[in-house]
User: Fold this.
Amino acid sequence: MKKNSLMHVTLCAAALALSAATADSEQANEPYDGSWASLQEMPVPAWFDDGKIGIFIHWGPYSAIGYRKGGRGYSEHVPKTIYEDPKHYYPYMKERWGACPPEFGYKDIIPEFTAANWNPDEWAELFEEVGAKYVVLTAEHHDGWANWDSDLTPWNAVDKGPHRDLVGDLGKAVRAKGLKYAPSYHRERHTGFFAKDKYAVHSEPRADIAEEIKRVPEAAMLYGPEFSYNKAYVDDYVARWKEIQTKYQPDMLWMDDFPIYTRDGNQVRKGVAKPEIRYFDDQVRGMITDFMNNGAVQGQAVYVNNKGKNRNWPDGVGCLEKDNLKLKVIGPKWQSCTTFGTSFGYLEGDQYKSVESVLHEMIEVISRNGNFLINIGPKADGTLVPEQVERLRAMGDWLRINGAAIYGSRYWKECEQTNEHLAFTTNGKNLYAIKLEKPVAPFTIDASKGWKNDQVKSVRLLGSDAAVSWDMTPAGLQITPPADLGSSQYAWSFEIVTTEEQHHPNVIQRDVDKVLTGTKAVDLDGHAVTPWRNIPAPAGTTVEVETASSANGFSKLPVPAASGRTVTANQKTNNDPVVSLTDGQLAEGMGPVFPNGVYNGAYRMDLGSVQPVSAITSWSFMKGARGLQKITLYGGRSTADPGWDLSSYTELCTIDTTGSEKDTYTAASLRADAGKSLGEFRWIVWAVSPVNGKGGGENTAFQELAVELVK
Assistant:
């Protein structure tokens, strides 16, 4: 035998022995056996539990569109709605691009996704500056486009569009800043995105999609190639994620919710599934197992999310998550992927939450054992939206002052105290009482009742050098804020140093169905859905309904004189201008009306300052069903604009006048008993619900809105 041959054999044997030893070692380091029960034991990584704040980024070819019918909702879904609603979108495309499908479709917009002004290092510097600890970038959304250097599809950011590895370049930049990184994966809905049936096991492409593929065969790899949950689709689904995992070693496997698990005859978590979906679930379970075991072998603390009200996986496999999720209780580890406006992807002219409401939402999420994954939607060239950057920087300013109450914190035995607008967090023996309105008067922490004098060592206000006065009273710890509130804005954190550990791990509500009860739902196309439920009039109030055949025919609820108060609508209205709602006149016309297809329409009146309110009344004109009123009333006390997130307001009452359609006009009023008030508010909201099942929207035809103050 020749020497080199002998050496080759020796080396091969050594390599095989090393490979076998490595395989044995890796197997020993793999803690997950492939079962859901095993995966339910995965721990929450410290970087996730301590970090609290993440940045979500929805960025892809849809960012070049930046438009959605009605101006609200998830613009990243427009690639499919183009084909779902051709009556609206085809004329829009002809006006903007000079053509529409099948001559010009979503694939033809991709060259406008350029990332020409993108600097990943600048993004990473901003994310670090505003206090984020991890970053989640869409690797692939439902549209089939890959933001990474993929060998599995030509429709990727290196071969087309930006001609850059967006996932790879951003990963290098954020990890250089010490941030964790998770390319998100949303392909689970791709089979139906461009198909006739969205959430079906087997579907087929829409006619114009099929024609585009016929004309440009390569387009099959973008729009499909599969329009069914067959084996080829499932195997490709797993392969694409494996490519991301291998190339970029993510710290988290982030997947969107899987509607097919509860659609088309499937109830996967209840053991009911068609063969294709059973195979899908099995392969995804294997994919998660491989990801978790790979992390263990690499010494990398990795994690998984569990998305949707109908959770993808058994409870305990990863963190609970939903879009814009707001729990009312302390739940098992969860995350809210939260929007600044109504869309995740870039939407020109989107309507944004106020800085104050964003910060309050962040604080409330964290006080309930949640993480705050705040989303930005950059433009197609990589430019960030100024309104989003403004809110990010305000968040960073607040966190630099109050970070001790957030990072590394845990929940207390109570997450809030509504009578003083307080939220609570803990860190070791420190309790943080975060005041969500300006602290101008002494306040008492109710849940500290029974504490002894020597249990509190000190109290200070983060961001202020002024001394804080405090006293143990029979009702609990009373804190007197200093005159100098320091540099914090929007919320003020009082650090209470005690002699005992303040974290109470046994207070979690572990039943996830109960945890999600009453939370605001968002449908799969981005409409916020507030299910109609009857909120009775509170004690000390009455609901008055009166109808009249003429504008001056009301005796109990006469129309007041013009108030001049400002009323705004959260979405575009048709017919009369919104200003007509406070002109003191009823007319035989529709008034402002939300058009068909609009959901969760609402009107809001600004009283100018916080004042005691005795009555809230509205009048509408009858035309068919549109004069009926089906509304929920809300009140807000915030001195700054609280935005349109109704969970930031106090629910007052629901009023349903359907069945009162005997006259031309209808008036409905929530009224406090004599000498009492409904509460002290600056903002009053009339949130509209559909009065019938027709029209696809909310068409209550208000003519006048009025608020009476306590005299």
